[in-house]
Design brief:
The chain has 362 residues and is α/β, with parallel strands linked by helices. 29% of the residues lie in helices and 22% in strands. The protein has helices at residues 72-78, 100-109, 125-134, 147-157, 172-180, 223-235, 261-272, 285-294, 308-317, 332-335, 353-361, and strands at 7-15, 26-31, 36-44, 67-68, 81-84, 91-92, 95-96, 113-118, 144-146, 165-169, 184-187, 210-215, 240-243, 249-250, 258-259, 277-278, 301-305, 321-325, 346-348.
Amino acid sequence: MLGKAVASAVSTTTLSPKTSKFFGLKRVSSVSTDSLVFRWKTSFNADSLKSGRCSRMESFVTRASAQPLKNADELINSVETFIFDCDGVIWKGDKLIDGVPETLDMLRSKGKRLVFVTNNSTKSRKQYGKKFETLGLNVNEEEIFASSFAAAAYLKSIDFPKDKKVYVIGEDGILKELELAGYQYLGGPEDGGKKIELKPGFLMEHDKDVGAVVVGFDRYFNYYKVQYGTLCIRENPGCLFIATNRDAVTHLTDAQEWAGGGSMVGAIWGSTKQEPLVVGKPSTFMMDYLANKFGILKSQICMVGDRLDTDILFGQNGGCRTLLVLSGVTSLSMLQSPNNNIQPDFYTNKISDFLSLKAAAV
């Protein structure tokens, strides 16, 4: 099972008659004439693929208040792998956060596996590799997992038919990962300049072969894309609605917060009234994928992030240790607010505290 079985949701999807390889999804029935209709029964906690938005508070389990990180060595020695969020942890916008290179070097020198997971779908893994390189960080492409990659990996895991197409509301990263996975796609930035000329009797056509609509952060978002995606989801039998993430805000620059991918996903949810399958954090899809790929015990992982409702919940849903850094979205007052029900194991100002707190503990 993915995560702790505290909530259950059932979705119906029309796909080719193949058994899903996706962890935690079970085929419990099949009916149809020329294709199989699978009912996938999922058992997740707060932010499963299907209920990434609405059941978090319902399934919350009370946790002790987070403790300030005082002995970094103790935490470092207790796990084998560190999963880092990127925006707000490694960088903000295009600016590297102080002390990051030295901290990563220290962890590697101790034999720790480092993995970088981001909900930002605008870049592919290869493109993110170039960003790390530009910032002076030596990170292998195999260590990077973006939600753009997760969307393609999810389609692979359910044996999404290669004769079906994917309509993309998002940017180049999703297109590149779909292409690498061998899927046909349309949409993306190319549709950013398209407009609808509303006039009496106008009927907007759409491709009946679209079997999935993938929605991610999109700086070229417009009404054409909303309508096209809506038509595919509402009128194409079994068409999947996949979201890379539901983040409310993102860091396009280090000067302020900007509306995130959740705003684009929310528009499609509003017009279809269908809950998306969320493949990015805090869904456990990427956690299970990573654990399987690297053979990692989840109890030997520490998730490090700056967001409570994505990074920390992602780690908790996956059964990992969690460390919140205050260098991004979450402030200390937000963490300690009576209205906050998500508590990490530890918190600290930034990841370079691993160096100073290590020295203080000697």
